[in-house]
Amino acid sequence: MSRNSPSQSGVFNSAVDTRVEKFTESISFDHRLYAQDIRGSIAHAQMLADVGVLTTEEASQITTALSLIKGEIDNGDFQFDEKLEDVHMNIESALVDRLGDVGRKLHTGRSRNDQVATDARLWVRDAIDETDRLLKQLQVAFVGRCDADIDIILPAYTHMQRAQPVLAPHYWLAYAEKLQRDRERLADCRRRVNVCSLGTAALAGTTIPIDRENVAQRLGFEGVAANSIDVSSDRDFVVEYAFCLTMIAEHLSVWADEWVLWSSVEFKFIQIPQQFCTGSSIMPQKINPDVCELIRGKSARVIGNLQALLVLIKGLPLAYNRDLQEDKERLFDSVDTVHLSLDLAASIVAGAKLNTESINSRLEDGFLDATTLMEYLIGKGTPQRTAHHQIGSLVATAMDKRCRLAELPLADFKAVNDSLDETVYDVLGVAKAVAAFRSYGSTSPEEVKKQVVRWKEQLELG
């Protein structure tokens, strides 16, 4: 840092090692906080005028100058200086260059410690709102598929083995539910983010008669942080948001992995839009689902960022430590990665096509109706464990005969349970098995239709 930097005081009697400037600077990444920094500074200046620390004219000059600086940064006409360390000192230095002593008054009653915490909270709050918008956009893409896919039946899996048949919209709504939990976590996280840090100064508060509620209201915060020491050391809100982003990345990775498999020749369930695929440098026939693979892969960096943040704060004594500067690159990277992944995922989901001919050609394979047949036996009074064993025997018989359960003669059914009659065929076959479901939240056609209606109402879709 420069000896002439506004952050340096008169206590220093030797020059800082020139390597320190490069090592300690954060302007290369925290310049992204400029809009929030200027917004917070304007609110602080106006509050200082309200309590009589600044004159109305001084506050007006500061507000006008900061607004002009923001315009220059917006337009790419502002030159950030690494020697000024960070975004806060770059903006304050520009303000002092324009207003002299009036600009020097702005930092009254605050520290860079509470200033950066406030900027980060404002930035995270804005980012959360954008994350939520993108999550909703992806939910809309899944729900938007439901009407067109309402009669398509898919094999659902456990242990990567065919398990039971489900309606395609039931599958899509499973992801809508996961994304809804992500949105609910974000909303809860936002409450803790939306607390004003400004005015707690370095760690102990200030003797200046500031009005912190005034600043909080100007910045749209719902409350004011109650302990100045805590404010100076707190990055819980960054870590919590990083966790929320990690869960979103995990959900996206699960979906992407599934569709990578589904798009293979072995599955041939789905066609991913070609504008989200790439080719091979040597194999001319390849249409690779690279975007889905990268969404799956990029979840690793989001998980890694969360881990880095957890390690960053694990041993820091109260209150502020310069270590906390290292949170922003991890935060920014997670936000950028998840936002782009969500945006691409919505387009892929909306544009993909199910290969119904391929799906239907193998849909009856794997005895997907076996559980429904077991529950049919239970309905006739057979204990569950007994019914489970008897249907397992029938599956073994069908495997030996290389046929489906619906193709077994009635004699085979009676051989395992004499109470069975020709009505057994009413629940056999994938379509009949799906139609037999009754429970709330199941893949019952009526239940799925109700859920589609509920989701359309929740997402305000016409």
UniProtKB/TrEMBL annotation:
Residues 12-304 form the Fumarate lyase N-terminal domain. GO terms for biological process: L-arginine biosynthetic process via ornithine. PANTHER family: ARGININOSUCCINATE LYASE. Keywords: Amino-acid biosynthesis, Arginine biosynthesis, Cytoplasm, Lyase. It is found in: Cytoplasm. This is Argininosuccinate lyase. Residues 367-435 form the Argininosuccinate lyase C-terminal domain. Pfam families: ASL_C2, Lyase_1.
